[in-house]
Known about the structure:
By secondary structure, chain A is an alpha/beta fold.
Amino acid sequence: MTVIVADQTSKEARDARDRERLTVLVTQQLRAQRVEEQLETWLRRGLLGRTSPAGGARVAIVAAACAMGADDLVFGTARDLPAAFPRGMSVETALRQALGRDGDPALGRGLPGAVRHRRSGVTLSDSSPAAHLVHAAGFGHAAQLKNTDRVALGLFGSGAQGNGEVHAAFNFAALMKSRVIFVARGPLAGELPLVEAAPAWGIHAVAVDGADGLAVWEAVEQARVRAVAGDGPTVVDARWRHADEQGSRDVRRLTELGGWSEQRDGIIAGLDAELAAAVGAARDAPRVPEHTLTEHLLDEADV
Amino acid sequence: MNARSLNLVQAVNDALHVAMTEDDTVVVLGEDIGKFGGVFRATVGLHDTFGPDRVIDTPLNEAGIIGTAVGMGLYGMRPVPEIQFADFIYPGFDHIVNELAKYRYRSGGQFTCPVTIRTPVGGGIRGGHYHSQSPEAYFIHTPGLKVVCPSTPYDAKGLLLASIASDDPVLFLEPKPIYRRATGQVPPGRYTVDLGSARIVREGDDATLVAWGAMVAVCEEAAGRLAGEGIECGIVDPRTLWPLDIDAICEQVDATGRAIIVHEAPRSCGFGAEISALVQERCFLSLEAPITRVTGYDVPFPYTLEHTYLPSPRRVMDAVMASVNY
């Protein structure tokens, strides 16, 4: 059961904060959407082997990433690419990564979208759908042992919930009071909602509307406060049951608050220009050099 | 303080004490490794000295143990997970092969995972199928891992301290049949044995034996008996199985012209096959006889017939004689 302390700030102050957050959310959603559409275009042209678009899960992914601190580490899969942009990774880096071009910090070694970008605190996997959740539990456990305010975010979808790694991650995280937040995003595909399942692990869980970015941001923000206080991990279940629930409600809310119409054209023009420049730079970039094939296998100082 | 006589498992314990005393990012975790001190007593005393935050009893879940260690390594710690028996490592295989071994490479060197996985290997303790295996070949076959297997207490301590200090993931295989049988002088405090550096156990002009872990003692016994018959065998213990000190092995084989590789694991695609290929690529013109392997058989590790399965001094002697008489 989640207890939300009544917000003591004035309605005007809350609206101002919400407008600010919603502007960030909508901008980042649109940025990620443009990148995903570009990757789809390249996929159809045969330039990519595959893509993993987040689709409607983009709202929750972006919002969860926005709620995290600068020194936190985000664990996810290629589908969680939208989490990288709020944390500072550029669109150009994402496109270079997808094409395997020079400028991908991981040297073209991951499938499109599965970025690893230490500077932004993002490590996205293209292997098991859930192994990274155990890593997130371990990272959060180290933070708990060191009593720092670093927190791990583990993003996952319904495809992972039946995986034994989810049990390992939740079990270890709960027992160790790991400073970790697990966020389930995307459609609920017949699994037990995690607010019903999580008590079996002794793990705190909340359900939130995954199409409401502001609500996800606040839920993850509260989970982060719990984690840093040493109160243990939280599961935020931001999945939806029906397809018509997946559209973002954030633009409508921002419009209601009077913060969208005057910004809209400028934001969209800026995002379009950013994408065009990034596409050109990525296409023109050389391929990752062949000599990197054997680099970074082991610590070169030791071999 | 002077060196004192320790057995191999005591040397492992001593190394863990030293590493944890010197570096508070070193933690150990595993099944029953805390208050109980580990099923083989390798972690005894650590819980009392360093407390439950650094000596962590975990659920019985190898994927969870290794996966958690990966995350702790990404944070900047140096976790030393223990897998109670190497036979139990397979539930954590995905985390070792697909995650831990690849993290540095997969991220272009941005992230490192300095995790040292300790696990007892080898048979001859009446452990049957699931407490006797020697799975080194699976992991040597995985780029991005270092694989270590000591045969003496001195090497066990020095190699373990070097492994924990390494920024790479290390699979540290401890030969449990000689945990208590192998004894020797071990200096106090820190010293390291370089990873990737072989040990010449014995010099000999007639044939070169290559062995690691518990098989080194088997080869020493065989070499001692053969010396009585006028045949002098050299023995090379790679100590680090990967990266392999192939130069040290080839130097010996070039001198003797004969190589016999001895290991407990099944013969086919065992590490002996790789060593054999490397030696013939480099020493072809020096060889006086085919390279020979003395290994376990291509069967699951047996319970009742374990001493039939395991390479014995007699089987090693026969292989040497066949090579010498080729």
